[in-house]
Design a protein that fits this description.
About 45% of the residues lie in helices and about 10% in strands. By secondary structure, the protein is an alpha+beta fold. The chain has a domain at about 45-195: FAS1 domain, CATH 2.30.180.10. The strands form 2 sheets. It has a 4-stranded mixed beta sheet with strand order 2-1-7-6, with helices on one face. Strand 3 and strand 4 (about 160-165) form a beta hairpin. The protein is elongated. The N and C termini lie far apart (about 235 Å). InterPro entries: FAS1_dom_sf, FAS1_domain, FLA_A. It comes from Digitaria exilis. This is FAS1 domain-containing protein. One of its GO terms (biological process) is plant-type secondary cell wall biogenesis. One of its GO terms (cellular component) is side of membrane.
């Protein structure tokens, strides 16, 4: 009986040990899953977060914040005012360092706002569409007519050039950030618009005066109508003169006949 009891106890211990061994991998798996790293946070959605993460855009960030354009961009992306999304051209710090002294300090607050808006286009332009953009691009600064805020992009493969009429810059064709609502590119120069930094345009030429049409002298209808009458009057006068001459000729002939008759009568009576 004692041997049977020991055997039963041994079997029980073996069963418990087997159960413990089979449960150990599950526990280890649970520990492994618990220690796995958390998924990466979602990509930043604000222009401030994007440029801060990219680094080397301190000067442009300062302008975005001082003009409150960073807030405007965020609000536009959230609302319906930019249904086509936005594209931002961001110059790095070395682009600002390369500017002549006083380039920014000479601007008023409103002009600084226009300068920042000149770097924002109210449409999403992925790199695949840079070769087919319609120039000049309309930025949030406003008009694209010469002397205002025209912006032209020309692309040839990986070479993308941006021209303002004042500076020619190079665009990095690989965006710093791209989504269906916002695309951010790095541009190697600050985009200086013509309206703020370009020379004044020459005044438009005055329109040519309208050519004066020389008035042709028209013959008065009365004068034209009177012309035949004048001819008739002239003809009548000539006829009358001829008649008078004829009458004078007839009168002279009659006088000669009378003299001849008188002479014959005297001669007759003398005989």
């Amino acid at each position: 009986m004692a041997a049977a009891s020991h055997l039963a106890a041994l079997v029980t211990m073996l069963i418990v040990a087997a159960a413990a061994l089979s449960a150990a991998p599950v526990a280890r798996g649970q520990d492994a899953s618990a220690s796995a790293p958390a998924p990466a946070p979602a990509a930043p959605k604000t222009i401030t977060a994007i440029l801060t993460k990219a680094g080397q855009f301190t000067k442009f960030l300062q302008l975005l914040q001082s003009t409150r354009e960073a807030e405007q961009i965020t609000n536009q992306l959230k609302g319906k005012s930019s249904s086509g999304g936005l594209t931002v051209f961001a110059p790095p710090d070395n682009a600002f360092t390369a500017l002549p002294v006083g380039t920014l300090n000479s601007l008023s607050d409103q002009q600084k706002t226009s300068l920042v808006q000149f770097h924002v286009v109210s449409q999403v332009m992925p790199s695949s569409q840079l070769e087919t953009v319609s120039n000049p691009l309309r930025t949030q600064a406003g008009e694209t007519v010469p002397g205002k805020y025209p912006l032209n992009i020309t692309a040839d493969g990986t070479n993308v050039n941006v021209s303002t009429g004042v500076v020619n810059a190079t665009l990095d064709g690989t965006p710093l950030y791209a989504s269906d609502r916002l695309v951010v590119y790095q541009v190697n120069k600050v985009l200086l618009p013509w309206a703020l930094y370009g020379p004044p345009l020459p005044p438009a030429p005055a329109p040519a005066p309208a050519e004066s049409k020389k008035k042709k002298k028209k013959v008065a209808p009365d004068a034209v109508a009177d012309a035949p009458a004048a001819d008739e009057a002239a003809g009548t006068t000539t006829s009358e003169a001829a008649a008078r001459r004829g009458m004078r000729g007839v009168g002279a002939g009659s006088s000669y006949v009378a003299v001849a008759v008188a002479a014959a009568a005297v001669w007759w009576w003398g005989v």
